[in-house]
Known about the structure:
Layout: H1 2-11, H2 15-24, E1 29-35, E2 40-46, E3 54-61, H3 66-86, E4 92-99, H4 107-120, E5 125-129, H5 135-142, H6 161-180, E6 189-193, H7 197-208, E7 212-216, H8 220-230, E8 233-234, E9 247-250, H9 259-264, E10 269-270, H10 283-289, E11 293-294, H11 297-300, H12 303-312, H13 317-325, H14 327-341, H15 345-357
Helix pairs in contact: 3-15, 4-5, 6-7, 6-12, 6-14, 7-8, 12-13, 14-15
This protein binds nicotinamide-adenine-dinucleotide.
Amino acid sequence: MKNSLLKESIHHTALDGLFRYADFLNFGEVCVKFDHDTGLKAIIAIHNLKRGPAIGGCRLVSYPSTDHALEDSLRLAYMMSFKAAISNLPHGGAKAVLIKPNVIKNRRAYLEAFGRFVEELGGKYITAMDSGTSVEDMDIIETQTQYVTCTTSSGNGGDPSPYTALGVRRGIEAAVKFKLGKDTLEGVHVAIQGAGHVGYFLAKELKKRGAQLTMCDVNQDNLRRCVEELGVATCAVEAIYDIKADIFAPCALGAVLNLHTIKRLQVSIVAGSANNQLAHHQHGGLMQEKGILYAPDFVINAGGLIYVAETYNNKNTHHAISQVENIYSTLTAIFESAAQQECATNQIAETIAWERLNTPSIE
Ligand code: NAD
């Protein structure tokens, strides 16, 4: 009986694939927790600890399989390392993935079990809000661990989205100055894909500065809020790539910049909040060839991370906001360097982040 069980598990192990992928991404460690009582199935992928404790959101979403969840956690943690490094934060990158069951019988108990898991790691990993989790969830997790951000007590309501939007606005200002030679956003036309958390706050930031906005969303309620409150123009979801504007701001999904969509773009700048915007690394080069200035996603969308990390590390909110504003100068340096070296902006950003990742933080 025992022998046949052993055979079963060896035949069905996902660990070979995991180790290969982890090696490819230069990991790190992957911690797993199963809690029978609450149904918690959690993966915490810790990519890098060289610059300090690893930080990253906790997502609670459904996955077609455990392998998909594992892959997602590793890929996202890797990207968080780049984001933290390019933003000069004293942190490595990590991600927690909670595989959403069909039913969570007791959400409080479920999140408490996750909080205890984070606490057991002794501060190697600091958790935060992400897809499928809320400030209220972080408050519950805080009852079990000190290694949590985005709580009600962490300042300004806990939601990082307004700071992500602030960083994107600063990034757009840097791109407009570099590409269009303009000091203000007055009259600049921005086509925003997605009117969710970041899209809404970004639209507010841009509207205040006189930008002209066109938005789309599959969710009509989210889009209506932007129309009613901010008076934005709208377009059909698929038409967003064809809008003649100055800027395309992807704030909805990953992989939206691909061979098909880049061909259609009629803008001179791409700058938005979405993670993993390029379907393939080489598409950054394609935009360069087309004369489109691309603000690398993990640089321009780091505002939320910068804000939560800075407030977690006990700096005041004023300091945290000024660090978010620095996205302007970080991006300007990347644009200048890419122009000098005649290469894609994402390539420059990745090289800088990679070098920093291998250098311990001075803080
Ligand atoms: P969100 O879920 O609140 O909003 C996303 C919006 O996009 C939703 O309104 C959704 O209906 C819409 N959408 C989905 N598919 C679409 C499509 N095909 N076309 C148009 N709209 C579509 O998410 P968010 O927090 O606003 O984040 C937006 C993006 O920015 C995501 O890629 C996220 O990973 C990234 N990001 C967010 C933060 C943050 O602080 N929230 C930080 C960094 C990166």
